[in-house]
Amino acid sequence: MVQEQAPQKLSIQFEDLHQQNESYIVGMWTFLVTEIMFFGGLFTTYLVYRVANQETFWEAHRHLSVPLGFFNTCVLLTSSLTMALTVHYAQRGLRKQQLLWLLATMALACTFLVVKGFEYHHKFVEGLIPGPNFRFEPVEHLRVAQLFFSLYFAMTGLHALHVIIGVLVMAILAVLTAIKHPSVQDFIPIELAGLYWHFVDIVWIFLFPLLYLIPR
Amino acid sequence: MSVAVAKPGEVKHNYLNAGDTVRSWLLTTDHKRIAVLYLVSVTLFFAVGGLLALLIRLELLTPQGDLMTSETYNRVFTMHGVVMIFLFLIPAIPAVLGNFLVPLMIGARDLAFPRLNLASWYVYMAGGLIATWAMVNGGVDTGWTFYPPYSSSYSTSQVTLTIVGAFLVGFSSIFTGINFIVTIHKMRAPGLTWFRLPLFIWAHYATSVIIVLGTPVVAITLLLVAVERVFRLGIFDPALGGDPILFQHLFWFYSHPAVYIMILPAMGVISEVIACFSRKRVFGYHFVAFSSVAIAVVGFLVWGHHMFTTGQSVYAGMVFSLLSFLVAVPSAVKVFNWTATMYKGTIEFRAPMLYVMGFLGLFVIGGLTGLFLASLATDIHLQDTYFVVAHFHYIMVGGTIFGYLAGLHFWWPKMTGRMYPEGIAKLAALIIFAGFNLTFFPQFVLGYLGMPRRYHWYPEEWQMLHVMSSAGAALLGIGYILPIFYLLWSLRNGAIAGPNPWGATGLEWKTDSPPITHNFEETPIVTEEPYAYENHHQHEEVASGTGASTAEA
What we know:
Order of helices and strands of chain B: HHHHHHHHHHHHHHHHH
Helix content of chain B: 55-70%
Low-confidence stretches of chain A: none
Number of strands of chain A: 0
Largest sheet of chain A: none
Largest interface: A-B, 39 and 44 residues
Shape of chain A: elongated
Distance between the termini of chain B: 26 Å
Oligomer: heterodimer
Mean pLDDT of chain B: 92
Distance between the termini of chain A: 49 Å
Helix content of chain A: over 70%
Number of helices of chain B: 17
Number of strands of chain B: 0
Order of helices and strands of chain A: HHHHHH
């Protein structure tokens, strides 16, 4: 293994590279705390309503496809592995492997989005999109079922938005790596993207059981 | 010190003259220039909010609603709240004074993420302009709290646009909070341990923690209201299966701590100014530092005291009431320690010190009336009356504005290199203090008598109190306009300040005024406790010398 130290550029406000790298990583973790609080509001909302309407939430959750959700969980977990490999090679300055695993992560993220698209399409066909055309049997549970699907779309939609942002960030990093741009000689941008990506995975790890499994 | 006062005619190199094109200001990553950008925009939004306040007071001069319709009145007080809270009170001290001083006080060359800092200003401006556009384009009539289901399903005003504006401004303060946390953790000068940090830094650290933990929650909550409004995704509307009380829980989970986002930085300013103008160490430094953290922590546990009348359980109400009383403990620790700092001090009543004295008075009144509202039984009587309006104006507005003005005057020589004229500054401080009390004290009485908030007509027997309040508002308006004029005047005509006109301790005073672009010629090394005023007697002659020439200027 070639132990090539990745070269880095020092910004004017820092004393040394150690301080700079630590600052960037602490900054990213602090940002992730805000993200946790952001999703935390939604999780709290979901839990409150689920406790209040257990029966209807049970009825409603059966319209979600566990096989598709399970498949997507596997896809995302694998993408976490490929992302970790990307960071691993970035730290050693091995650009070719770094690019390869980054592209693999992007491919998995896109797979996740495509599957999610199919799931949303099924909901649309079944008339489970909240709004004036919402259909649900039995009718007396219509209101609460609509609430369940409102939360389902709000939570998975916000998560999907984070996946899309992740794909965009990775695409930019992949292009910069491919054209050997100086800013990705530094491993820190890849490392920060990695932290973000693991966060996106972890949110899904909570979403999947909460929405698809627990009511069973 | 190695820094020297510039001779007349000689222009020293500093952050202000480092580039004078518009481009060099709009694309700057210098935290000091970004602070100046914030200073200008915050002042403009304050003027907008202030004009709306004057409209409200003008309407309330007479018992009948004769100046505007009920709908217009609703839109005016809503925009007054939105502009003042999201665009002035929350960003004022952190974004202007914090941005300018945090790196200087800890001996850093800049904040950890200068470009993120610039981005935060752009996001703030975008949010502010969207909210202003919403106001011009019809306004909002929900009150600044956006309670659903009215805001999400029934209001016909610009709720969505305003929420987008508030959401963006929230992100701007998250950026600032992250920047401060990382900078304070990782970029302190050698020798600057946590317990050698100025209390201003402790206050900003606690504030940043609240911002990082609280703001995202209100962001998602407001986003859900917007989503419910636009896509009919039912979350809070009972007609769609939701629960409006849940909105209030989520909303106040942030919006009560937001009060501490406004007042904690002001408390940081107070500690600095009191120590300097009493020429003493801050009494009980550790207690004052930890009380900031304690306020930040307990502040997250009291949101339910906004909801005593919503039908949450009595037991929840009792717990929230108890926890609300608990906030008084760290707040009182601060007030007692400030008083003890002044005890046997060599007090100089300069303009910043006058604002500090005003702050103490207003904070005590605001804090004590808070106890009435934290008590379940009295709150039932006072809920949604002018008593509440007066209470939160005393704490939020009195606290923040007096802290902000104290800080602005105190660090004005550092920011601009010029002294402000002392005499007229003292006059302005007195006018603002008198105007403030005349405006808001009658509102306590009105509230106790039963005047509900957000009404634009009232029985005739309350007119006298409303007239007093409106007269106070006019006086307050004059008081706020004065500093704009004399501070601008001082930019050209003020006496040259020198690096340390007050003879204060702290790293920010050990560099030029105004500072050079990267703050220090060489990284300072800290060897002593903060506020070691007993070691600094030699500065006092220098300070009084400058002060005398200033008073005449």
